[in-house]
Amino acid sequence: MPRPVTLFTGQWADLPFEEMCKLASGWGYDGLEIACWGDHFDVWQAVEDEGYVKAKREVLDKYNLKVWAISNHLKGQAVCDDPIDQRHKDILPSKIWGDGDPEGVRQRAAEEMKVTARAARALGVDTVVGFTGSSIWKYVAMFPPASQAMVDAGYEDFANRWNPIIDVFDSEGVKFAFEVHPSEIAYDYWTTVRMLEAIDHRESYGLNWDPSHFVWQDLNPVDFIFDFKDRIYHVDCKDAKRRVGNGRNGRLGSHLAWGDLRRGWDFVSTGHGDVPWEDSFRALNAIGYDGPISIEWEDAGMDRLHGAPEALKIVRALQEIEPPAASFDAAFASSD
Amino acid sequence: MPRPVTLFTGQWADLPFEEMCKLASGWGYDGLEIACWGDHFDVWQAVEDEGYVKAKREVLDKYNLKVWAISNHLKGQAVCDDPIDQRHKDILPSKIWGDGDPEGVRQRAAEEMKVTARAARALGVDTVVGFTGSSIWKYVAMFPPASQAMVDAGYEDFANRWNPIIDVFDSEGVKFAFEVHPSEIAYDYWTTVRMLEAIDHRESYGLNWDPSHFVWQDLNPVDFIFDFKDRIYHVDCKDAKRRVGNGRNGRLGSHLAWGDLRRGWDFVSTGHGDVPWEDSFRALNAIGYDGPISIEWEDAGMDRLHGAPEALKIVRALQEIEPPAASFDAAFASSD
Amino acid sequence: MPRPVTLFTGQWADLPFEEMCKLASGWGYDGLEIACWGDHFDVWQAVEDEGYVKAKREVLDKYNLKVWAISNHLKGQAVCDDPIDQRHKDILPSKIWGDGDPEGVRQRAAEEMKVTARAARALGVDTVVGFTGSSIWKYVAMFPPASQAMVDAGYEDFANRWNPIIDVFDSEGVKFAFEVHPSEIAYDYWTTVRMLEAIDHRESYGLNWDPSHFVWQDLNPVDFIFDFKDRIYHVDCKDAKRRVGNGRNGRLGSHLAWGDLRRGWDFVSTGHGDVPWEDSFRALNAIGYDGPISIEWEDAGMDRLHGAPEALKIVRALQEIEPPAASFDAAFASSD
Amino acid sequence: MPRPVTLFTGQWADLPFEEMCKLASGWGYDGLEIACWGDHFDVWQAVEDEGYVKAKREVLDKYNLKVWAISNHLKGQAVCDDPIDQRHKDILPSKIWGDGDPEGVRQRAAEEMKVTARAARALGVDTVVGFTGSSIWKYVAMFPPASQAMVDAGYEDFANRWNPIIDVFDSEGVKFAFEVHPSEIAYDYWTTVRMLEAIDHRESYGLNWDPSHFVWQDLNPVDFIFDFKDRIYHVDCKDAKRRVGNGRNGRLGSHLAWGDLRRGWDFVSTGHGDVPWEDSFRALNAIGYDGPISIEWEDAGMDRLHGAPEALKIVRALQEIEPPAASFDAAFASSD
Amino acid sequence: MPRPVTLFTGQWADLPFEEMCKLASGWGYDGLEIACWGDHFDVWQAVEDEGYVKAKREVLDKYNLKVWAISNHLKGQAVCDDPIDQRHKDILPSKIWGDGDPEGVRQRAAEEMKVTARAARALGVDTVVGFTGSSIWKYVAMFPPASQAMVDAGYEDFANRWNPIIDVFDSEGVKFAFEVHPSEIAYDYWTTVRMLEAIDHRESYGLNWDPSHFVWQDLNPVDFIFDFKDRIYHVDCKDAKRRVGNGRNGRLGSHLAWGDLRRGWDFVSTGHGDVPWEDSFRALNAIGYDGPISIEWEDAGMDRLHGAPEALKIVRALQEIEPPAASFDAAFASSD
Amino acid sequence: MPRPVTLFTGQWADLPFEEMCKLASGWGYDGLEIACWGDHFDVWQAVEDEGYVKAKREVLDKYNLKVWAISNHLKGQAVCDDPIDQRHKDILPSKIWGDGDPEGVRQRAAEEMKVTARAARALGVDTVVGFTGSSIWKYVAMFPPASQAMVDAGYEDFANRWNPIIDVFDSEGVKFAFEVHPSEIAYDYWTTVRMLEAIDHRESYGLNWDPSHFVWQDLNPVDFIFDFKDRIYHVDCKDAKRRVGNGRNGRLGSHLAWGDLRRGWDFVSTGHGDVPWEDSFRALNAIGYDGPISIEWEDAGMDRLHGAPEALKIVRALQEIEPPAASFDAAFASSD
Q1: How far apart are CA C60 and CA C6, in angstroms?
Q2: Which label site among A213, B61, C166, D199 has the fewest CB atoms less than 10 Å from its CB?
Q3: Residue A333 — very low, low, confident or very high, per pLDDT cuts 50/70/90?
Q4: Between vectors from CA B230 to CA B226 and to CA B232, what angle results, nearest 5°?
Q5: Which residue of C has its CA nearest to B142?
Q6: For chain F, percent helix, then strand, then coil, each to nearest 5?
């Protein structure tokens, strides 16, 4: 079987899991990258209640869907974040938020990430996709001045909080695929290099390649695949479009809402943006990536019911680009 | 007298004020944009002690320097900021930091900004340059999700905290020239539009045109002068260089220190970066700006003792571009 | 009903109206933007003869076509133009050309534009698309020197000639949608600003957004929609392709015929050129434009019978991009 | 009949001729550009054995395929090349390689090119596509220093070796369509100018327009068609993609294998690269080229069985762009 | 003597000739390109009154200035122009304007151009720089539709009116150096090709290379030198700057006054714009151009008294780039 | 002492050594990078005759010049090259060329490179700059097809021939600084990676950073410094200018002579081309490079007697950019 195409359910968690399954199956997806929020997947129940996992599996089977990865961005976000504020309260379950004391929130979130590794194992899945949060993201503008010591402390904080989590991933035989993203400990090329150094390149900790944030930061998604080829553990297809160039729209988005065309960049449905998809897929072929291709669908200017099946069609076309068995200049060989 | 050229003392506050004056005068500057930190200018003393201002004036006179503006970025920063943390403690005097309780810090900082208006008046200066801080800068990445209501609240918080300060500027006949800058309530074109709306375009509140942060956000510094032509109250010449394009260096700077060439952009000495200086000066001519041209010198890869006089030379050359009295095609007129 | 897609009949006026209807209907168009020349629509008959309009309506009904706008570019052109010459004679009916005395031609053309407003009303249509001509277009190269007084006089001439016409539009409740275009009083961004000022932003006078001429002048079609969002009264989809870059093809077209690839730009069938169609349609969504999308088909290198149905297909696909009901990050909300 | 679309068999010569015919026919090609290697076409047999040609024709007829050109790149390459080495041995039949003595190889190769003209005539074909080799290609880097005299000698060597070959083409009424290509006597614009001068613009010697190598050398494929419009005797559609821009991938390909994404450019299936296909086809229309459009399929990252039919589909769509009979502004003419 | 540097007096004709000489000499110019308007040079007097020329020469000698060319743009403009209007009246002497009847104006202007050739001879000068005007410039936008027959007629009108003038240039042994420029019969590359064809490439009629208008039309000034290398009879250094890119400023200048930064391009002092001066001078070296380098100074944002000496300094520096006698790799030759 | 600036004598070897010294000294150079050809430096004499070195030193001392490196490009070229032909004969002394048998030439050249290490030691110099030649450069176009095995063999040949040479460098304590260059075993980024792997990153073998060939291959000279920071052993300042973009000039130079502006790129005097010199010098500062900055002067369009002193002036200005002792934001620290 060639690489399967899945739909990430994070942006659909307002829908009941079964409805989500029905939609994805109807559009022709091979499976789901299941979000650990909404009613889609509760990692605590998954490790505590065998029946829970079995029931999920039955729904998936009913719709002929498979699963290769689960995702828990929202709880991972809280592990390192500082400050912890209303934004976190809005996306965390009360079990993690508790009384909202920041350090307590962080520790409960870390605990859930360990549970997530065990839940993945329980579901028979090898990969967890997610975020880490960051205690130093807030220094990104470097003003008021943040010393390199403060920055170093941020990476150390990350290592201290995540190494114990990775220990659990190790013992469960599950891999964590971190999504390089603003607000996280790594959001570009050099911070990814630094992040991997901070945890000594532990093998259980790799990357979820999602090119959408590379585009507006002027990073090269294709080179990223090559340069981190031994750490690409999962692929999310999310697209973004730059809308700078008129001298008024800026790279930082101007605190404008998604979909506002005055933003200097925005998420768009896969294939509608600036990601060099074809070369990216050729690079995935080149490094031998054979895991799932997951569509993380976000486009504030398009109806998701229109966009999700369209994105699948686009990705299926990209998947048809497969390397041949033999070199083409073999045909020039003289053999008389 | 054509527009004077001044040196902003903020990056030199480690030097005693008189030494700073001696240097600037020796290089040929017309005056200073005096920073309200270090021993350069203490706004509290200025309003409480007539002799303090007189003594400052004597030093300036001794070195044949004038002053058209004072700057208080560091205290302005604390007015709206959230969180208030170690970075603020590092740059605030104990009088403002106090016990470090965030709201107390903000209010004491606001009080100092009022005092700054009075101190400017006492010094005989019409303009205060500075920052505002921002309670919503931290939402810039828009993840965890920040609703437009949260964003709106940030602009409202800004208006609530700054309107009373502007009242004092109004009554003193002094203008505040806000520097558009990451970490502030406005950092690009559309946030500047929104900021000015938030305070109903009060006339005492305008802009310090500093193009360095426009360059890496892909904003057009020349158009900015035109579009906000009635609000350009001060000019800071600081330059920046984009170093993106290799697919690895990113627009956000990667938390790398100033001067690290892997940053996607960096400050450089005036004339060494990507600011379109000539057209900017032509635009300043076009809108009739006749205030000071102040050099805010920052370049982590160059010695400031080399850079400051070089920047002056570059700006003097730009100042030589002056519009003529008559249209050139007048010479084609037939007059026989 | 979503926005209808119409075909502008101007480039098909060599065909009898009914044949045009048959073709457009067969290709699946929703309606026509009817040109007031050829036998397609005679505004004088329309206001003088009730049966004329009724007969037109019957043909449209027979082919299940609707009409939201009529166009009278060729007569509008003559209202302000100077000189009036052979080119005008070639495109004007004898009723307007008369003896060819320039001022007489202008006045008769102005009269026809008033009649056009009444004819639109008679047909039950709210919008007239068209040109204005210009007495100063000939000064575009600014050599021999044209003073600003001469330029000012041109805008004044425009206002003087068009205000009485707009009065009739006002009284008929019909809007004029001016097409920004070389040879007209406004052909780019700043001339559009000036034109609207010249008539005090009268509400009956707005714009027909046609991006084809923006492309080669380096104007941004998407920003144009935003910046004039309250004056976009009609949309024409015409595309253009820049062919500069080899150092020999120039922006002005070299007096070469349409379709000659040495021209620095040329019209091409919608979707074959440099217009950023997708973002343009997103912008139309953003400003809430709900009028017709009309295809003005011009491509000297393609057969129109091939191009017109292809263009419809491309526009239908663009129309499928519709904003969703809810924000995508709603799905992240915690609700336990 | 509009221009036919053929498949060049050079990259398929590992397959038996009939299998190749079956594939091409099944995909819908109109004919073949037959390579004179493998078992596809043996020029010596063609001129010596009437039955050989007849048999080939029968296979073609069986699959409803036509032929307008044959190609003999591999032997043409050896005519001027210096050094002659293992690479040539690998692609030449023993009849030409013989004992491998360079001058002998060159002369036997030249002899085969004459035979190829006669074979084309025997097959009823007017065009032979191919290479020339070059004795000075090895000087391309100009270090160790190569004097202009050495360069001149290379063009003279070319003329001396090819004029006798062209004599045979003349007498057979067949044209040679040289493919501009690195390793050949002409590989870009100015070397093509020089090459044609070297043989005094003999009419039997023209060009096979193959844009793939133009793309990475920054040559303009569309202008090339215009500037050499009287010498475009054949068209090969091969595409290429530039992959420079990250500062590490170079224009020269780094001796990396085809398909390695670190190469600064690579061949890709038609329509997947940087060739401006639409304008190229418009240019072919403009110069009245009415010969075959041949797909030379090379893409080391794609399976040829997937790519060849896809390329045909893309080219068929390009072929639908045909100039109209009449000028579109005819419809504006007044005829009352 | 290397190529001399002259100052074109056209934009200084409001100053008395002697004052102009004094200025130019004081700045260090080698000579003048004298405009045939103001009191600088009257061609009628020059041919009728020997003393007039002698007096001019004395003034030149007094200031140690030489002259290699005279210019008569303003009268040349009227030879072909249509319409003839107020703009012409403003720049023509009454002797040429007369009663303003267009055809009379054209014929008197043509007569003056013949006289100009004779005046050049009388002054001992081999070159006249100037314009032609154009009866078809007004068709540049191609709307209202202008047929190719109309365009052809324009080139024919040009040939008919200028051939008799060129006859006089021939007989006087003087060359006309036409300045490629909007409003003229040729304003870009392809119109220059067409113009030269229209007069059968007569040798007395060549080009004044002035790159300022090439810049904003996207023409390559360096290639222009090569491609018309046998017709470069004079060089004018005028610079221009593109100011497009923000999506609002357009290539056509928006009828805005010179110096308005909203124009999409503008003239600027030599070295302040987008002309590739260094490569242009290398190209002039390459074709062996050894005539004068004349500075035509126009910059609505700079004082000409500042600009003219600055431009001279810049051009002198460019002149220092001179080809060496021997090839640099000669030094690698082994000679033991 | 800051980094010294030297002049490479390779392009001046037609001059006697003392004359060269006199010129360089007169222009203000600190020293020379002495070429081992002409009469500048004979490595055989240097190791055999103590007086030879002493005499050279006396000449240098007389002109107050120092030496930090010697260069032997021409002999190094012959070590791996294949074919060995007239071009080599032209630049090799008869001692190395001998009977011209290729393998003999290669071995004698290799012997000279060993002697060069000993000569450097004798002269008291730590660095030898040079070339390697390449047996596979001729495969750069990859047609006729060159297998990866052939390519691999080329790197192996390089290692086999150079390892014994490097052994001598090791034992002499001298470093070889290879210049990345077309015609050599490494000519771009990825071939440099491969070359260093081929010899197991031996420490005595590093790089001479010469950015001129990076520019036209689209390689990033600044990143190159970072990525190979532990192997930058010498710096040569040679500049190059891209002249592509018109669609006719190609990246490969068209076999045209140096200085012909139709070449797609050419060498130009330092500071006249596309090398990002300022950022390159900032990068050299960043990696702590403290060796000589050598000007390798080549510009076929400029006189070397003009260019060499001008280049020195430009490099001296670049050298003035030196990093400061302290971080600039130290001045913001609060210290009350």
Answers
A1: 12
A2: B61
A3: confident
A4: 75
A5: C329
A6: 50, 15, 40
CA gap E64, D56 in Å, rounded: 85
Report pLDDT digits (tens) over F96-152: 999 999 999 999 999 999 999 999 999 999 999 999 999 999 999 999 999 999 999
pLDDT of residue A331: 76
Could you read off the pLDDT of A129-144 as tens digits, one per residue? 999 999 999 999 999 9
Q: Which residues from C are below 8 Å from B when comparing CB atoms?
A: 144-145, 329, 332
Assembly ipTM: 0.95
Helix then strand then coil, in percent of chain A rounded to 5, is 50, 15, 40
Subunit contact C246:D282, Cβ cutoff 8 A: no
What chain F residue is nearest to B242 in terms of C-alpha separation? F279
Whether E320 and F301 lie within 8 Å, measured CB to CB: no
Shortest Cα–Cα distance, E245 to chain A (Å):
7
CA atoms within 13 A on the CB side of E250: 28
Write phi, then psi, for B178 (nearest 5 degrees).
-80, 135
Q: How far apart are CA F256 and CA B217, in angstroms?
A: 42
Contact F211, F275 (CB under 8 A): yes
CB C311 within 8 A of CB C237: yes
Is the per-residue pLDDT at B53 higher than 70?
A: yes
Checking if the pLDDT of D139 tops 90, the result is yes
Query: By the 8 A CB rule, do D254 and D264 touch?
Result: yes
- A116-139 average pLDDT score: 98
Residue with tokens 């006492």: B122
Cα separation of A52 and A37, whole Å?
Answer: 15
Q: Is D233 helix (H, G, I), strand (E, B) or coil?
A: strand
List C-alpha distances in Å: A309 to A237, B67, E111.
13, 65, 75
Q: Cite the beta strand spans of F214-264 per DSSP E.
A: 232-237, 239-242
Contacts of D246 in chain B (CB under 8 A): 246-248
Length, in residues, of chain B: 336
pTM of the predicted structure, to 2 decimals: 0.96
How would you write chain B as a 3-class SS string?
CCCCEEEECHHHCCCCHHHHHHHHHHHCCCEEEEECCCCCCCHHHHHHCHHHHHHHHHHHHHCCCEEEEEECHHHHHHHHCCCCCHHHHHHCCHHHHCCCCHHHHHHHHHHHHHHHHHHHHHHCCCEEEECCCCCCHHHCCCCCCCCHHHHHHHHHHHHHHHHHHHHHHHHHCCEEEEECCCCCCCCCHHHHHHHHHHCCCCCCEEEEECCHHHHHHCCCHHHHHHHCHHHEEEEEECEEEECCCCCCCCCCHHHCCCCCCCCCEEEECCCCCCCCHHHHHHHHHHHCCCCCEEECCCCCCCCHHHHHHHHHHHHHHHHCCCCCCCCHHHHHCCCC
Confidence (pLDDT) at D329? 62
**pLDDT attached to residue F332:** 78
Q: How confident is the model at residue D334 (pLDDT cuts 50, 70, 90)?
A: confident
Q: What is the CATH number of domain F5-334?
A: 3.20.20.150
**What region, left, alpha or beta, does residue E99 occupy, with left being phi > 0 and alpha being psi -120 to 50 degrees?**
alpha
Would you say residue E14 has pLDDT above 60? yes
Measured CA to CA, the distance from residue D101 to residue B164 in angstroms comes to 95
- On average, the pLDDT of chain C sits at 96
Q: Which helix (H) or strand (E) holds A179?
A: strand A175-179
What is the number of CB-based contacts under 8 A between chain B and chain F? Answer: 78
Q: In this predicted model, what pLDDT tens digit does every residue of C186-210 receive, in sequence order?
A: 999 999 999 999 999 999 999 999 9
Nearest Cα residue to D70 out of D132, D111, D118: D118
pLDDT of residue C96: 98
Amino acid identity of residue E270, one-letter, is: T
